[in-house]
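example protein:
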Amino acid sequence: MPAFNRRLPESACIVERHRADLIGHITQVMPLADRLRSLGMLHVEAYEEIRAAKTSQEKMRELFKALDSGGDRVKSAFYCTLRDIHPYLLQDLEGQANRSRRKHFPSPPLAPEGMRGKHTDLQSQRD
């Protein structure tokens, strides 16, 4: 079974979450389309639409149309292809997402120095 089938929901969500960034950052679209075509994940018509687009952003938009029509399985294959061809871009995008989550959900502050490791719940205070 290909690797992209095992990570279906997570990888498809990552692709959706970073859609705008991927459209804006990927300039070499055809290697992605070629790989997806060779895996049987792109129909000839979709591949030709991608190839005919003038700019890399237009090519990526056409590619996303094909991904949307193919569903999570095709998005997962795209994720794996992206991981192989543009690994640093994917790492950067995931790093940005992780930093953003930490900003919105920061870790709770540490207890004061003298209180670390001590029970401070109500029961221990009553005893």
User: Anything to note?
Assistant: DSSP finds nine helices and no strands in the chain. The chain has one domain: 3-106. Residues 120-124 have pLDDT under 50 and may be disordered. The first helix runs from residue 3 to 6.
